[in-house]
Amino acid sequence: MKDKNGDFVPVSQEEEGIGKAIVNAAYVVHKALGPGLLEKVYEVCFCHVLTNSGYNVKRQLDIPIVFDSILFNEGLRLDVMVNDLVICELKALENVNPVWKAQILSHLKLTGKRLGYLINFNVPLIKDGIQRIVL
C-alpha cells in the first residue's frame, strides 16, 4: 500500500507481531512433525500453536467476491486468518506452484488485508517453505 505521496506504507506493529508468531508456529509444527504429512494435519497443529499463544484463529473461511454491487459466492476459501488481520495459506506439496502466490494475493485483495504468508510444510527446512507477502 502507498500513501498519497506514493511512498510505501509499512504494515502495523500488530501485524508484524502476528507475522512473527505465524513464522514461529510454522517452525514449531515443522520441527515436531517434519515434512510429508497431509496439509490438514499441519493446519490443525499450526492453529493449535497459535491459539495456545493467545491468538484468535479462524480456519477455512469462505471469501465472497463483490463486483458491480453483486455478491458472488464462488467457493473461494482461505486456510487461516489470524486476529482478523493476517492470512495464511498452507501447503504440503513437493512442487511449488506459481498459482499459490496468485491465490494468496487474491485472498488479500478480496478481504482488504495487507499481510499474508504462504507456508509449504513439505520442505526439509521450513525457512525455505515460508513466503511473506505484503500489499
Structural descriptors:
135 residues, alpha+beta, five-stranded mixed beta sheet, 3 helices, 5 strands
Characterization of this structure:
The chain is an alpha+beta fold and 135 residues long. The chain is 36% helix and 30% strand. The chain starts with 12 loop residues before the first helix and ends with a strand.
Low-confidence stretches: none
Major sheet:
5 strands, mixed
- What is the distance, rounded to the nearest whole angstrom, between the alpha carbons of the first and last residues? 5 Å
Average pLDDT confidence is 92
Spatial shape:
globular
Number of domains: 1
| Residue share in β-strands | 25-35%
Q: Could you spell the SSE succession in H and E letters?
A: HHEEEHEE
- Helix content percent band: 25-40%
- The total count of helices amounts to 3
Radius of gyration: 15 Å
**Helix/strand-derived class?**
alpha+beta
Number of strands: 5
| Strand neighbour order, sheet with most strands | 1-2-3-4-5
Short overview:
With 135 residues, this protein is of the alpha+beta class. The protein has one domain (13-134).
List the SSEs and their pairings.
Layout: H1 13-33, H2 39-52, E1 57-67, E2 70-82, E3 86-91, H3 99-111, E4 115-120, E5 130-134
Parallel strand pairs: 3-4
Antiparallel strand pairs: 1-2, 2-3, 4-5
Helix pairs in contact: 1-2
